[in-house]
Structures are given as structure tokens and as C-alpha cells.
């Protein structure tokens, strides 16, 4: 059997971790099996449809490097891939169910249904009371004559059960009498509901496997019933484990960023995100954590999915990102940091970074060129220095500000003073540090550090107490790239001026 899988988002909001995990697993499964990956846009909810959400689907997956073989933007033999362009197929399918007596038209007013719902809530009854199930032709004609357009409902049998083998969860069985009776499959505006369109399309697009979030598990018995009513073979199902925060609750905004756009803005690399997301419910073995997308395309298998909910660990993702940043070439890391530095006005804004700085895309400028500013050269030289410290690209401006802007004296005097020391003692230390800084060109890095160490010993204090005030003097901040490298990039004159300013402040 040819493997055909799909990602079927509804364009109603930004792509979030859960959706991307579903898309990624389908993509990887298709690649590993030599199958096809389809993007289908489930846009039948006209009220919640958003153009921006559709753009976000394209942008997100382009950025992540996940592509589909068939989809609205690239066509394919099973199109159209927008459900809103497939209405006549749903109408035909519904007609076949009506003709077979498996569905019926319902003319009940919105008010009546609302009344039923509140009575139902009171009495613990769910679903429709089936009033229109047995209308005859005459009654239907009378309603039509009143100008009422019906909805179409699926008949849920009283007996029997929907049963299927989930590839991860095993046998799932649900009695029909436990389903909410007679759900709407076609709305009065002629649009299908999710259930109908999803089943018709999975069948017509010859989808072999449905890998989707466990949130949809409760809909699957109804889908099985629909397949039965149509006389279609259902696809194989695999409901992916929930993604939760550390508290075990479903991952949501309360836990932190959830949309890919937010992660992108914060300065995550696409490969860090795909690597980490691949591990949300899947593992290769007990130890290996790092995978490129190409490797995952080879290694992914349904057998290695875990049933247990996957906990989304923001710290771990950040750690992955730091690792991927350390793997970047100098030039790539420079280009990755550029939009953040431009947005912070530490680099002159380049034309291509306009949208990129806030959406934090990699700016599309060509590599080093004649148009490069002096500041760009400064940043290029500093890349090796900041690489080790950077966990998020958005931290780049703070780490590099001291080189690109004049931060001389730009801090509170308190910042200079180490714990358990006072202004006077700190000033004395900086006075002693000054000649070492002045002579730094004579030393290599090791010697320079040895000088600082000796100085600390002479003053009967820790090396940290020497470095800390110097760090604040030089960079304006207690957290900075490695100090000796920072001194070198700044150069003797500017470094001395900043030490002097610190002494004056104390
Ligand atoms: N349109 C549904 C969604 O937004 C698709 C669910 C499914 O994969 O069946 O997730």
C-alpha cells in the first residue's frame, strides 16, 4: 500500500507546537516510508477563517524546512486542496447518504435547538432529540415552502459500536448509543461540518494513515460511523500523545510561547525547533538526542512513538538552541544575529531586514559585500566571542552592545561593587587593574589572566572580585561575553577610558 498522509490545519490561528508536531510526524512518516505528504486546508468554518493564519501556515513550514508533495500552493492529482473549493463533492456525498436513508434533513430552528440544549444541560441529555428523523415528503415540502433551508444530520444507530485499531493506543471501541445523537454533517449554508469534510477528503485523497493529535480521538468513532455509512474503508489511525507543560496540563499560553512565530522572534533556530519537537512523543533510543531533519526522515517510525504525554520543557529547548548556535559557521551566525542587531539599532538597517527584524527571519542580504558598515565588521569579529554565550539570537544585542554603542559609565555605581566590598576597595582594585589593561597588548590571553590572578592575590581577594568590576566597566553589564576577549575587541584606548569612567563613578 502506498503511504499517503496529510496535515489538515484549519486556518484560524497561528501555527503552534502541537500542530507543528502533527505536521512534522506526518512529514517524517511519509519520507521514511517513501510515501506522499499532503497539505489540506480545512477552511470550512467561514467565521473563524483568517487569511493571516493561512499565510502563517506557509511561512512556518517554509522556515522549518518542511515541505509537502501536494497542497494548495503546489497542486497535485487529488486537488483542490482547499476544502472550500470542494463543496460539490460534499454535496454529492451527502446526497448519497440521504438516498440510502443514512442521513436526514432537519428543519428545526436555531431557537428550538438552543432550547433543547439548555433542557439537555439541565437533564444531563446530550444531542438532538431526533424530531426531524422521520419526516415524510409532505412535511419536508411544507417546511421548504416556509422558506426554511434544512441542515443534514447523520443517523447514529442505537445499537452497535465503532471500533478501530489505533497504531499507538491499540483497540478503541465506543458504543454508538454513547455518541451524541445525529450530528449535523451539512450546515444550512451548504458548508460541511469538520467530520463530513474530513472523512470525504481522506477517502477521496486516498489517505492511508491519519496521524493526528489525541484531542481528535473523541471524533474518531463518528468518523468510523461515517466510513461505514459510505461503505468506505477507513484509513489507519494513530493518535499522537498530548503535549503538556511541566505541570501536566495541556500546553497553553500560560506555560510560555506556543506559536512558532513567538519562538522565531525569540531567536530559536529552525533546526533546534524541529529537533526538539521531534522528541515530543518520539524517541530513537534512550540516549540519542540530536537529529537533523534529513536524519529524522530516515529514522522516524511509528513503532518508536510513546503513549505517555510529552512534556514540553522550555529550558531543554533553549539548551538545544544553544547547541545549534555553537554549530553555526561564523557567517551564518552573523546573518542570524543581524536582524536583531538592526532592530536594536546597533547595526544600520539593511533593506532586506525590514520585515525580518521583527519576524526575525534571517535577513536575505547577500554575504559580506561592499555595502558592509564598519559596525558589521565589528560584529563579524565578535562572532566567535559571543557564540559560546548565546542561547537565543534575541540576546545578541545585549551581548554586543558594548562594542557597538558607547556604554561608558552607563550603569549604576552599585553595579561595580562586588558583594562584601565597598566603593573604596573596588576603586582600589580598578586602580590596580588599570596598568594591566594599559599593557594588555604585551600579553597573550593566558598571561593576561595570570596578571589578573596575581593582582587578586596581592589584594587578598578572589579573581571574580577583580573581574566583576572590570566587566561592568567595560561592558556596562554583569553578564557579558568572556572578559578578556571583550577587552581585546574593544582595544586598549577605549577599555582604559571605560576603566577611568568607572573609577570616577566610584
Ligand atoms: N482541521 C483539523 C485541525 O485543525 C484536522 C484534524 C484532523 O487531522 O483530522 O486540526
Helix content: 40-55%
From the alpha-carbon coordinates, what is the Rg to the nearest angstrom? 31 Å
* Mean residue pLDDT: 93
Provide the domain count. Answer: 4
Shape: elongated
- Uncertain spans: 351-366
Ligand types: glutamic acid
CATH uppermost class of the largest domain: Alpha Beta
Oligomer: single chain
Q: Can you tell me the CATH architecture of the largest domain?
A: 3-Layer(aba) Sandwich
In whole angstroms, how far apart are the ends?
A: 77 Å
- SS-derived structural category: mainly alpha
CATH topology of the largest domain: Rossmann fold
Largest sheet: 3 strands, antiparallel
Portion in beta strands: 5-15%
Summed up, the helix count is: 20
- In the sheet with the most strands, the strands line up as 3-4-7
Assigned CATH superfamily of the largest domain: HUPs
Q: How many beta-strand runs?
A: 11
